[in-house]
Amino acid sequence: KLHRGKTIATEHRRSVSPPSEAAAEVSKIQGFRAMAGILAWFWNERFWLPHNVTWADLKNTDESTFPQAEDLYLACPLAFCVFMVRLVFERFIARPCALALKIQANGPQKAQANAILEKVFTAITKHPDELRLEGLSKQLDWDVRTIQRWFRQRRNQEKPSTLTRFCESMWRFTFYLYIFTYGVRYLKKVLTVDLHYYYILELSFYLSLFFTQFTDIKRKDFLLMFMHHVATISLISFSYVNNMARVGTLTMCLHDAADVLLEAAKMANYAKCQRLCNVLFVMFALVFISSRLGLYPVWVLNSTLFESWEIVGPYPSWWVFNALLGLLQALHTFWSYLIVKIACRAISRGKVSKDDRSDIESSSDEEDVPPPAQKHHTNGTNGAPGTNGYLSVPSCHDDH
C-alpha cells in the first residue's frame, strides 16, 4: 500500500507539472534509451565474439581471468598522465643531457623581415610558383633566386631546434626501452595484473602520440604515421577485447624492439656521434626488417589468419582485426623500402645523412642553391637599408 501510495503521488505530481518539465523528462529518458541502444549495438556479441561465445563466458572467475572491455577506459586519463610525464622528462632530464652533449638550443636561421613576402607566405602560399616569383621580383626589385631563398629560410624557420628533436627522441627511447623489457618478461604468460598494466600503458602511450602528433615535429610521412597510430590503437583494443592478449603482446614487443634502436640512432645523430649513429642504424635496419618482414608475418599473421581460422573460425571482428594487421604489414613493407634506400645512400656517402622514414620535416624537400651575385641598390623596399631587401646573410642548409 505504501508503494502504491508513492506511485500515485508521483503520477499526480507529473500530471500537475508544467509541460516544459514533462517534455524535458521525456527527452532525458529518450536520450538514455538511445545511448543504451548505441552501446548494445556497439558491443554486439555476434560482432565481437565467435558464434558460440558470449560476454558471460568471458567473465572473471576463481579459475580463470579474461580481459574486460571496460578496462580500456582507464587508458584515456592515463594518456594525459603519460603526456605530463613526458613534459617533465623532457624539461628536467632530456634537456640537461642534451646541453651536456653540447647540443645547441638555437633553431634554423631566421629569414629577414619583409612585410610583402610574409603576407604571401602566411596568407597565400609557402611554395610560390614561377609566375608569382616573377611578380614578386618586379614588385620588390629582388632577384628571383633571392626570393626563393627567402621562402626556403622562412619554411625552415618553423622547424624545431636540434635540442627539441633530441628531447623528443630521448623520451621515446626511454619509454620504448622500458616497455619492451617489461613486455618480454610476460610474453609467455596468460593475462595477469602485470600484463593488464602492460596493455593499458601501451594503449595510453599511443593515445598520447596520436594527439601530440599534431604538435610534434612534422614529418613527410605524417599521414602514414597517423594511419599507423590509428591501426595500433585499434589493434591493441581489439586484441584485448577479443582475448588475443598473447598475439597483442608479441606484436607490441616486435615493434618496440626496433623503435628503441631507431630513437637511439637519432639521438646519436643529433649529438654528432656519426660512427655510433651508423652502427645503431645498421642494427635498427636489421632488427626492423627481420622482425617486421620476417617474424611478424610468420608468427603473428600466420597465427591470426590461419591457425585461428581452424580453431574458432572467422567472425566480423576477426575480419576487422586481420585487416588492421594487414594494413600494418603494408606500412612495414613501405618503411622497409625507405630503410633500404637510406642504407644504400649511406654506403655511397659513407654516413647516414637523412632518415626518410620519420625524421625529415615536411618543409625540407628542396636543396639549397648557391646565392647569386647580388646587386646593391639605394632605394630600399621593406628591406635592409642600402640593399633594397636583398638577403645579406648566407642561406641556411636543411638540418636533418
Automatic annotation (TrEMBL):
Q: Which Pfam families does the record associate with it? A: Homeodomain, TRAM_LAG1_CLN8
Any one GO MF term held by the record is: sphingosine N-acyltransferase activity
In which residue ranges does the UniProt entry place its DNA-binding region annotation?
Answer: 119-162
Q: Which Gene3D superfamilies match?
A: Homeodomain-like (1.10.10.60)
**Protein localization:** Endoplasmic reticulum membrane; Nucleus
Q: In which pathway does it act?
A: Lipid metabolism; sphingolipid metabolism; Sphingolipid metabolism
Q: Where is the Homeobox domain?
A: 117-161
Region of interest: Disordered: 355-400
- Which reaction does this chain catalyze? sphinganine + octadecanoyl-CoA = N-(octadecanoyl)-sphinganine + CoA + H(+)
Which keywords fit this entry according to its UniProt record? Answer: DNA-binding, Endoplasmic reticulum, Homeobox, Lipid biosynthesis, Lipid metabolism, Membrane, Nucleus, Transferase, Transmembrane, Transmembrane helix
Task: Extract one GO cellular component term from the record.
Answer: endoplasmic reticulum membrane
Q: Which residue range or ranges hold the TLC domain?
A: 150-348
Q: What's an example Gene Ontology biological process for this entry?
A: ceramide biosynthetic process
Is Kinase given among the entry's keywords? no
Classify the protein's membrane topology as the record does.
Answer: Multi-pass membrane protein
Q: Biased-composition ranges for Low complexity?
A: 379-389
Protein name per Swiss-Prot or TrEMBL: Ceramide synthase 6
Organism for this UniProt entry: Electrophorus voltai
